[in-house]
């Protein structure tokens, strides 16, 4: 059974693209598209301009893997950060979640995912080599593994611990308080802050 078109190709394309955004299915995408179109001057045009500017200016930080409009990113160039404390996260969303918690004034390293042999994601597909290089360069006294409490996250944490075992750097992980199977981006700031303060040796 063929699906009838409800609007012109431009609006249909807008709906299809919005449906690819996490948290938006086809129905939510249609509602969002209709809302944007109805408020063209207040929302659609400014949003289109913001998207175009972001597409032109957003960069991936060559040091830590964060997303910013400058490279190195704002966090990496902040002189107030503790160079000896490096927090390792899976994705940029996790970095942002920890920053919202405001528990530590540290540097970050974004892996870009977790090890997952079933999905064909090995160490070469992640930014683990960059992490080892940063630690090997010296000055990092502690690496905090702030990965999600999932099977893949813990597998990745064990692998990184092995890779850093030859360096004079303390490797710790988030303390209890982060639920097993939980993801950092969905936790409240208080839980994240407590987990960072109560970190333990890995």
Q: In short, what is this structure?
A:
This protein is α/β, with parallel strands linked by helices and 202 residues long. The protein has helices at residues 9-18, 26-38, 40-57, 92-101, 128-136, 151-163, 189-197, and strands spanning 59-60, 67-68, 82-89, 106-110, 142-145, 170-173, 200-201. Helix 1 packs across helix 2 and helix 4 (92-101) packs across helix 7.
Q: Which overall shape is indicated by the principal axes computed on the Cα atoms? A: elongated
Unreliable sequence segments? none
DSSP summary, beta strand count: 7
Rounded average pLDDT: 90
Instruction: Characterize the main sheet.
Output: 5 strands, mixed
CATH fold annotation of the largest domain: Dna Topoisomerase Vi A Subunit, Chain: A, domain 2
Query: For this structure, what is the CATH class of the largest domain?
Result: Alpha Beta
Q: Approximately how much beta-strand content do the residues carry? A: 5-15%
**CATH architectural category of the largest domain:** 3-Layer(aba) Sandwich
Q: Report the total helices.
A: 7
Tally of structural domains: 2
Order of H and E elements: HHHEEEHEHEHEHE
Gap between N and C termini:
55 Å
Strand order of the largest sheet: 4-3-5-6-7
The structure class reads: alpha/beta
Helix content: 40-55%
What is the gyration radius calculated from CA atoms? 20 Å
Task: Describe the protein's architecture and organization.
The protein has 202 residues and is an alpha/beta fold. The chain folds into 2 domains: 9-57, Orthogonal Bundle (Helicase, Ruva Protein, domain 3), CATH 1.10.8.420; 68-201, Dna Topoisomerase Vi A Subunit, Chain: A, domain 2 (3-Layer(aba) Sandwich), CATH 3.40.1360. Helix content is 41%, strand content 13%. It has 7 helices and 7 strands. It has helices spanning 9-18, 26-38, 40-57, 92-101, 128-136, 151-163, 189-197, and strands spanning 59-60, 67-68, 82-89, 106-110, 142-145, 170-173, 200-201. The strands form 2 sheets. A 5-stranded mixed sheet has the order 4-3-5-6-7. Strand 3, helix 4 (92-101) and strand 4 form a beta-alpha-beta unit. Helix 1 (9-18) crosses helix 2 (26-38). The radius of gyration is 20 Å and the shape is elongated. The relative contact order is 0.10. The mean pLDDT is 90.
